[in-house]
Amino acid sequence: MIKEKFSEGDSFLHKLDPRVKIIVALLFSAIVAVTDRYTPLWGDLLLAAGLIIIAKLKIREVILRLLVVNSFILLLWIMLPFTFSGEKIYILDSLGVSREGIKYAFLLTIKSNSIILVGIALLSTSSIYNLVHALLHLYLPDKLVQLSFFSYRYIHTIHSEYIRLNNALKVRGFKAQTNFHTYKTYAYLIGMMLVRSYDRSKRVYNAMLCRGFKGKFWTLNHFSFNKSDFIGGIVMISCIIGLMLF
Questions:
Q1: How far is CA 169 from CA 21, 71, 162, 174, 176, in A?
Q2: Mind telling me which residue stretches traverse the membrane in this protein (predicted)?
């Protein structure tokens, strides 16, 4: 199974109602995404970092996840300064580096890191099962929630299938190269994964029908909304709105 390293803990955010965390995370992400002023964005980034500290998460693990995200953002830094129209501050051969392009790339960097940090602090501190349960309580469509849950649940299974097929290729002496045989082999590999995933999904669905599944998940333990959940949610929402108006 996929390890949920951040979901284990005893901090305030770990104990907070998942419904509150989902609402706050969505509100924060929406506001940060549409904000284009640096002052509130710096405040949002500090707020996100503060939530990481409150959650008592391992900084090294958080940084590793940020490195993955920022590796994609690096591509924006390579492209935007050269392609964004505006005042040219440096000319490199026939390409010009625009001041606006640098500002826009920096803006996207702050936004992306803020949203990721809040997602880690709020959503990763709950297990996937609790998050799915919370989404059902927030009245999201059952089919959409179930699709998201099963996609997450069987990523590990599909990855294990890929490892087994890839090992079978290595046993037969296959070595990846830049030629037609390699491309064709990987195409067969992807095709076999799709076929086996489809067969596995049918077996799982039939097993669920044998156990009485009728399109709805029933839960025995429900969330209890208490005073600390209410206060925590109000404080975080107030901070987000206050930063937006600052």
A1: 44, 30, 11, 5, 10
A2: 20-35, 41-59, 66-84, 228-245
Cβ count within 10 A of residue 154: 16
Q: Are 27 and 90 in contact (CB under 8 A)?
A: no
Token digits of residue 82: 């050269």
Asked if residues 80 and 150 have their Cβ atoms less than 8 Å apart, the reply is no
Q: How many C-beta atoms surround the C-beta of residue 3 within 10 A?
A: 8
Domain segments of the chain: what residues?
A: 5-127+224-245, 154-210
Query: Residue 2 has what pLDDT?
Result: 58
* Alpha carbons 106 and 202: distance in angstroms, whole number: 47
Q: Do the Cβ atoms of 37 and 246 come closer than 8 Å?
A: no
> Which residue ranges in the chain fall short of pLDDT 50?
1
Distance between CA atoms of residues 75 and 90, nearest Å = 19
Q: What are phi and psi of 114, to 5 degrees?
A: -65, -45
pTM (two decimals) = 0.81
Which residues lie across from 91 on neighbouring strands? 96
